[in-house]
Amino acid sequence: MMRKTPQTINASTEEVGASPISLEKERRDLEALKKEIKKKNPDHAGCYFEEIRKGKLHFCWRISIGVRGDVKQLTRRDQTAKGLGVRVRALIGELNANNMKVGDKQKIKVQDRMNAWLETKVATSREDTTYRSYKQTFVNYIDPVVGHLQVENLQSTHLMQIVMFVRGKGLAEGTARYAVDVLLMGLGSKIKTKLLDDDNLELPSRNAVRERWLSKAEISEVLGELFRIRTVAEKKVKGVVVRPARQEFTHRDRFLIGVILSTGVRINEALGITMDRIDLRAGTLTIDRQLKWRKNKKGARIGWDLGKLKTKASNRVLPLNAEAIELIRAQIAMVRSEADEMGQGYAMNGLLFPTGTGAPTDARNAFRTLECVNKAINKARKMVDGEASKDMPHFGLHDLRRSYLTQLAMNEPTLVLVMMLAGHSNMATTQKHYVYADQARAAEAAKKISFGLPSFELTKV
Known about the structure:
Layout: H1 23-40, E1 46-53, E2 71-78, E3 86-91, H2 110-123, H3 128-146, H4 156-167, H5 173-192, H6 216-226, E4 231-232, E5 235-237, E6 240-243, E7 246-247, H7 251-263, H8 267-271, E8 278-279, E9 284-287, E10 290-295, E11 301-307, E12 316-319, H9 322-342, H10 363-385, H11 397-411, H12 415-422, H13 427-434, H14 439-447
Parallel strand pairs: 1-2
Antiparallel strand pairs: 2-3, 4-7, 5-6, 8-9, 9-12, 10-11
Helix pairs in contact: 2-3, 3-4, 4-5, 6-10, 7-9, 7-10, 7-11, 12-13
C-alpha cells in the first residue's frame, strides 16, 4: 500500500525493480534522500518500516526508531514466495518540528514521535476514526514494547495482537515469527551498512531462531495422525462428480515426512534423492545432491537441477534403520505404480519423491501437510480434554531434522558421530542448534550414573 508523499517535501519515490538491487545503488538513493531532508527540516527524526508480502498486504506494521537529523519511511517487500528479491521504496513523512527537536543528546520517546506522525496524518485529510484506531493500537500494543527503543524485546505475540486489532482477523503464528525476524534483520543490516545513523539508536539484536524439537510422545502423535486413514467423500453437483473420494494426505507426503524423521536429512536433500543413491541391501543412503530450482529475474521457477549440497561436510552416506528402509521401499513401490498408470506421460527422472507426473515435489506441499497434522492433533486434544487441553506448538520440516538429531544424541554419547550424520562442518553448529537438553533428560542421564556403592548399615556413633 503506497501512501502519498506530503507536498512540502519533493522527494523522489522511485521504486526499485523486483530483481535484487545492489547495495551501492541503495546507499546512493538513501544518502540523496537524507541530504534533501536535512535541507528541508534538520529537526526531523524518525524511521518507519513496513513489511509487505508480494501481491497483497499480508501484514502492515509501523515501528518508530529514533534516528538523528532525518526522517525515512522504508517499505521492504519480501518476495520469498516467488524468489528472493527486495523492493526498497523511500518515502518522506512530514512531522511536527516543534516536538521533534533533537538537542543536547535528548532522547525522544517513541510515543512522542508516533503522536506527531499521527497528528500530521490527521492534518492531511486523515479521518478522525482512523487516527484514533492508529493511536489506540500504538498505545495498547507497540509502545509497551518499543517505547524506550527496546526493539529486541519484540515478540511474535505482540505482532499477532496488533494485526488482530487493526485488521479484525488473526495472523498465523509462523507468519508473525517470520515478520519479526525479517524486520529485525532488515533494521540491523541497514545500520551495519551505515544506511541509517545510529547515534541515538541501540542496535537491536536479531531474534533467536524459533527452534524446537519434538519429544517421543509428540512424534508418536504426529506419525499416528499422519498415517491415519482419512478419506474425503466425493462431492456431486447436479449429479456430476466434481470431487472424487480421496485421502487427505498423499502417500508421498507421508513417506517424505517419515524419511526426514528417520534419517535427519534436510528437506531439499530428501527431495533430491534418486533411486541410484539408495542401497536397501546394504541399508545405506548416499546424500551428495539436493534439489535446486532455477528461476528467472522475476523469481518465477523455470526449471530444476540436482545441485551441490550446502557444504562439503554435507556429502555423507547415511545408515538406514528398519523404519527408513520400510518407508523407502513403500515409496519406491508407489512411484513404480504411478509410472505404470501414467505410461508415456510420466517423466522418468529417477526421483524418490516425485509428483504424480514424475516432476520434482514442492516442499510447500509437505509443509502444508504438517500444518494439517498439527491442527488435527490440537483438535483431537480439545475433544478429549476440553478447553483445558494444551495445544501442540507449531513445528516445521526442519524441526523434524532437529528431533532426529536430538534423539540420536540421547542414544549416542559421541557428538562427533552426530555431527557427521547431520552433515555439519563444525561441532558448534550441532551443539547450538540441533542437540537439546531438558530437565527430564538430565534426570534420566543422572539415574544411569553408578559407581558401585558397597552395601552398608546405619549405626549410631
